Amino acid sequence: MNIAVIGSGGREHSICFKLKQSKQTNKIFCIPGNAGTSAIAENINIDVLNFKSISEFLKNNNIKIVFVGPEVPLVKGIKDYLEKKGFFVFGPSKAASRLEKSKSFTKQLCKKYKIPTAQYKSFSSMKGVKEYIKKMNTPIVIKADGLASGKGVFICNNKNEALQKCKEINQGKFKSSKKFVIEEFLSGEEVSYFVLSDGKNYKFFGSAQDHKRIGEGDTGPNTGGMGAYSPSNIITKKVEEKIKQQIIEPTLKGLKKLGCPFVGILYAGLIIKDNQPKLIEYNIRLGDPECQVLMMRLKTDLLKIILACKKKQINKTTVNWSNKKAITIVASSKGYPNKQSKVSEIKNTKKILLNNNQYLFHSSTFKKSNKIFSSGGRVLNATALNKNLKSARDICINMLKKINWKDKYFRKDIGWRAIDS
To answer: What is the pLDDT of residues 392-415, one digit of tens each?
Structure first.
C-alpha cells in the first residue's frame, strides 16, 4: 500500500519511521519532507496548502491513505478537499479543526458541556480589556485566538505586561487572528493526553510531558517544544477516568452534535492539581516533539490503526505500548525562538547508530550536494527508548554531542521533573 505523509518536521519523520515498519506498507511519500525523511521515504516538493497539486500527485501514484501531520492544512480543509476526490485522510475536517484554530470556539464548547477549564473572556478589540485585567489576580494568561505555532501563549506576571501582550496580538502580531483570550492562571502539573477517534469510537493513544521553554529549568520564552518524554508519570487510573468522562467524551459528543465528528488524533493539553484534570487547550494532531516519543513506544502497526479508523472500527483494535520510557531532545539553531541562525551545514549525522531504540529525527533540514543543512528553528530530535528515563536521556545527549554543527543548542535537562523526583 502506498501512503502519503503531509509535513516536513520531526513529527512527520517519526510517522514515516513507524509506517515503514508495517508489512502492509509498499512505498511512503513525504510532502514535502526533509533531509531525514529522504532516507526512508520519497520526498515530494509540493506546498502543503496546494491541495490541487497534492490531489493530482496522489491520483498519479495510486495513493489512497494520507496522514496529515501539521495543523495548518487541516485547519484550511485538506481533509474535506481530498476526501471529495476519493482519498482517505487521517485527520479531522475543517469544521472539527476549529478546536485548535480558535481558542474561543473551544472555550464555548467547554462552557456548553461543562468541561473543566480556566475561567476566561474572549476579546476581538481592546474595548474593556484594561478593566477586565484590573479585576484579575496575577499571573494572567494571554492567548492568541488563532494558530501561532506554539508561540501564542503568554504567562504575564504583572498587569501591564498582560495589557501589552493583548495590544500586540490585537495589532496583528499573529497573522491568523487579532482576537485573543484572557484566562486565569492554573497551577499544577502539565500533561499531554492523546486519543484516537474514528468518528464513532475513541481509544487512548498515549501520554507525554513536553518542555515548552527554551531554557534549562523551564525558563525563558515559549517555543514549539524543546523535548518530551513518555509516558507521563502523573496520570493515575482515577485521574484518567476523570479525563475521559469530564473532558474527552463531552468534547467528542459536542463535535458530533455540531455535525463534525472527529477523525484522527485529538491531543488534550491538560493541567492536573489535587487529582483534578482541567483542559488548557486542544490540538487536532500529534504534538511535535511528543509524536517522536509516542512513535518510539508504539508497538502496534500504525498502518493497521489508520485502516481501523477508516473502517470506524478502532474499538476492535488493540493498541499496545512498550513498557520502556522514551525521551526526545530537540536541537535548535542558536537564537531560537527569537533570532535564528542562517543556513549552516550539519556534519557527522552518519556516525550515529539508528535503530528501533534510538533514532535521530530531522525537522528543519535539507540536502544539497549530498550534504545536510539546517534552515533554522527546531532542527534535530535525538530520541531514545530505555527501561530507565535517565539512561534514555544520556543516550540522546551523546547522540547530539557527536553532531558537528556550529549553531547547535539543546537542553540537557529534559525530563528533569520525572528523573529528579
So the answer is: 999 999 999 999 999 999 999 999
